[in-house]
Design a protein that fits this description.
The chain has eight helices and eleven strands. By secondary structure, it is α/β, with parallel strands linked by helices. Helix 1 packs across helix 5 and helix 2 packs parallel to helix 3.
Length: 306
């Protein structure tokens, strides 16, 4: 199957809350239309309020790809359920093992109207869902509708290639930056280029240690199950490399001086350093950056090692 065929071949389900993300959904639809994909989502359920859950999940199951967009609303919870429709859609896509692209709004860079910010029990459900998304997926963060559209135009063709689909040559698609370019951008503007997936290589120095509380808090890493080291990549750049849970355990078991290729994501966060003075505690914002390793792809002896 090829992108560009007249008959639709790639149904994509776009899941999100609606009232707060209408402009964003429109931007995604426009991007997917440019890629000649078929978009399915809440706009296609008709005008009846409260689409039945079974019908909604049936539509999810009819698609080949799931795109999840998450902002500051958890969404309406159908009668008889304890999860929102958006959450149910996501869970169904994962149950069906649909290839998934996850986008979360950048709360630090995109102003959000108070009426679109969840409060009460829904806010806690949303926080837990976002933490789950960050642990399961390499998520991307977006600001404006145009920014989200650019993400879609970059990420969907890459996903199609992984799925074995061919991209027709007449589509004007943005050229994906190399991993070295992404890292270069991340060094200069870490907040803007956080959440980017890269493949990197480094020589294991055997110095992985438990991540400090400040590092874990800034980057949202698992307490008591995260490690970090400072290493030089094959590109010559130096970064803090983090791992958590099973990845952390695997990193600690790596032989020293072995060359390691990993899939990682750029990470940026801020924590408050506490300095005690005669006038009491003084809080100073501190930035934490690094690469969070998501997968160890392969290892090999260092060249020249005996």
């Amino acid at each position: 199957m090829k992108v560009g065929e007249k008959k639709p071949y790639l149904p994509v389900f776009v899941g999100s809350t609606f009232a707060d993300l209408q402009l964003y959904r429109r931007a995604v639809r426009d991007a997917l239309a440019q890629l000649e994909a078929i978009v399915r989502g809440m706009e296609h359920f008709g005008s009846k309020p409260g689409c039945p859950v079974d019908e909604c999940l049936r539509v999810v199951g009819s698609c080949h790809v799931y795109i999840g967009i998450f902002a500051m609303r958890y969404g309406s919870i159908p009668d008889g359920y304890d999860q929102s429709m958006t959450h149910l859609e996501y869970d169904e896509a994962q149950r069906l093992e649909l290839p998934s692209l996850i986008y979360i709004i950048d709360e630090e860079n995109q102003p959000i109207l108070p009426k679109h910010v969840e409060t009460g029990p829904g806010a806690e459900k949303l926080r837990a869902l976002k933490e789950q998304l960050k642990k399961r997926h390499v998520v991307s963060f977006f600001t404006t509708p145009e920014d989200l559209r650019a993400h879609i135009l970059h990420d969907v063709p890459e996903l199609l290639k992984e799925m074995g689909a061919e991209i027709s040559g007449d589509l004007e698609l943005p050229e994906a930056p190399s991993d070295a370019e992404v890292l270069h951008q991340f060094v200069k503007l870490p907040k803007l280029f956080a959440g980017k997936q890269v493949t990197v290589e480094f020589i294991n120095n055997g110095d992985f240690r438990s991540a400090f509380a400040e590092e874990r808090a800034a980057l949202g890493l698992e307490i008591g199950a995260s490690v970090v080291t400072r290493a030089q990549l094959s590109t010559g750049d130096q970064f803090s490399l983090f791992g958590e849970l099973d990845v952390a355990l695997a990193l600690c078991k790596l032989p020293k001086k072995v060359r390691v290729q990993v899939r990682a994501v750029t990470a940026f966060g801020v924590y408050k350093r506490v300095d005690w003075t005669d006038d009491g505690p003084v809080l100073t914002p501190e930035v934490e950056t690094g690469l969070i390793i998501k997968e160890i792809m392969q290892t090999a002896p260092e060249e020249g090692a005996v």
